[in-house]
Structure formats: C-alpha cells, structure tokens
Amino acid sequence: MEGYSKDQEASQPAYPPQSGYAPQPGYGQPPSDQAYPPAGYGYSNQPTQPPPNYGQTIPASTAGVHVTTVTQASPPNYLGLALFVTFCCFWPTGICAIVKATEVNNALNRGDHAGAQAASDSARKLSYISIGCGIASIVISVVFIIIYYVVVAASISSSY
Hints:
Elements: H1 6-10, E1 60-62, E2 65-67, H2 79-88, H3 91-110, H4 113-159
Antiparallel strand pairs: 1-2
Helix pairs in contact: 2-3, 2-4, 3-4
C-alpha cells in the first residue's frame, strides 16, 4: 500500500464479519500447535447406529393401498459340496455340479430368483448323484477285491 507506513498498515481494522456467516476457523487467529482438528469437528452430528427399523419389512399404507416389500432369501449355491464331490467322489457329474453352482450366483446377479433356485436344485441333485456314484464305486471295488482274493485263494489252495 503506497503512502502508508508499516505501523499504519498493522493498525488498519480488519473487515467486519459478514452477517449470517460464521467466521472461518484459522483466519485471523494465531496458529495452534494442534496437528488435528479438535474433538467434535466435522461429523459430530452423524448417527453412530442404524435407524431403528433398519433391515425390517414395514408395510406402508397410502390412501387404502397397502404395499409390503418381501425380501427373498437367496438359494444356496452348493459350490463347496460340488468341489468336494468332484475331487473325492465322481468327477464327471461333479464338474456339472460346479457349473450349476456358479450359475446360481450369476442368476442372482441378474435378478432371476427362479433361475437361481432351479440352478441350486440342479447343483444339489448332481452333487448327490456324484456322492451316490462314489459310494457305489467303492462298494463295487470292495466286492471285486473280496471276490478276487477268494478266487485266488481257492485256486492256490486247490493247486497244492
């Protein structure tokens, strides 16, 4: 500022605060040693808990019309069972069960609840078929081993 000395500039009054606005913190105040804003700064009025009816179905009535939202439970995908039967029981139907189990999540993402339920039922059915085939193959193997040893033991004992 031309024509003013440094003492005159320092003695100049600050602008008056505008009406309707709170003064901004930090302007015209000495700097503080505090690195973070004081407690209660910012989001102090935010709720810490969800609203009391959060996640509940509440019927709404407007002029005699009742609207009720229905939340459908998503069907299980049986992916864990499908992986188990693929590696431990019977892999051909186990692979088909894995394919159906992944179709459950894809159908749910599309919003096709009926398709997801059908794929879930197919995955469960194919997994149970794999378990049945695995158990049957173990039983058949044990029977063949017993028959083989009985026949071999009989032939060995009869040759002496």
